[in-house]
Write a structure and sequence with these properties.
By secondary structure, the protein is of the alpha/beta class. It has a single domain, classed as Rossmann fold, CATH 3.40.50.150. The protein contains six helices and seven strands. The chain has helices at about 5, 15-30, 50-55, 70-80, 120-130, 160-170, and strands spanning about 40-45, 60-65, 85-90, 105-110, 130-140, 175-185, 190-200. Strands 3-2-1-4-5-7-6 form a seven-stranded mixed sheet. Strand 2, helix 4 and strand 3 (about 85-90) form a beta-alpha-beta unit. It is globular and about 45 Å long.
């Protein structure tokens, strides 16, 4: 059992998690006109806090995670709310290179910094994003490692300029950044960015 599996049942008890998901969803909706024709993927969805904030505005919402227990909680929430356009997926895009989904938008919230190979996951996002589709990545600005503390083997946030360059190298265009929220942890505030990048038309 992973740390995320162990925390799945209590994940939604933290009001900050719900608040940041709502704030990020608001900015996504402002920057990308979501429509009832759009098929969207939330990658690293956890219990679906961001997904539920986007669900009323799209045609279908696939919610992918590698934590089985997070997906168990998510399924229970989907059944309780009868959100028929939401589908949980046990999916690791770095392993499942044959995943055939094509999405009009891909959204992630505090997921990218857990993935060691940033360039490869950006390439995989582009693989499953429809031409003209939008990639929406919300994560931490570069920090000193205090957010997770000693022993964390992911990224200590991201420098916006460096991430923009990585997105452009991966073939995305029209990269923009906003700051929808600030996470409070250990008595400190950590800015949360939202990067939106477009997959070129006709590819």
């Amino acid at each position: 059992m992973t740390d995320f599996d162990a925390r799945a049942r209590t994940w939604d008890a933290d009001p900050d998690k719900a608040e940041r998901a709502l704030r990020v969803a608001e900015v996504i909706r402002r920057e990308i006109p979501l429509t009832s024709k759009m098929n969207v993927l939330e990658y690293g969805c956890g219990t679906g806090l961001l997904g539920f904030a986007l669900q009323p505005y799209v045609r279908t919402l696939a919610l992918a995670d590698t934590s089985r227990e997070m997906l168990v909680v998510l399924r229970e929430k989907i059944e309780a709310t009868e959100a028929r356009n939401m589908t949980p997926l046990l999916l690791d895009l770095l392993d499942d290179v044959a995943h055939e989904g094509r999405y009009d938008a891909i959204c992630t919230l505090l997921t990218l910094h857990h993935i060691r190979d940033t360039d490869r996951i950006l390439a995989r996002f582009r693989d499953v994003l429809a031409p003209g589709g939008a990639l929406c990545i919300s994560d931490l600005d570069a920090e000193d490692g205090s957010f997770h503390g000693a022993g964390f083997d992911g990224h200590s946030g991201f420098d916006r300029g460096e991430l923009r360059a990585r997105l452009l190298r991966a073939g995305f265009q029209d990269v923009t950044f906003t700051t929808p929220y600030r996470v409070t942890r250990h008595g400190r505030q950590y800015p949360l960015f939202l990067a939106i990048a477009r997959n070129p038309q006709g590819e």
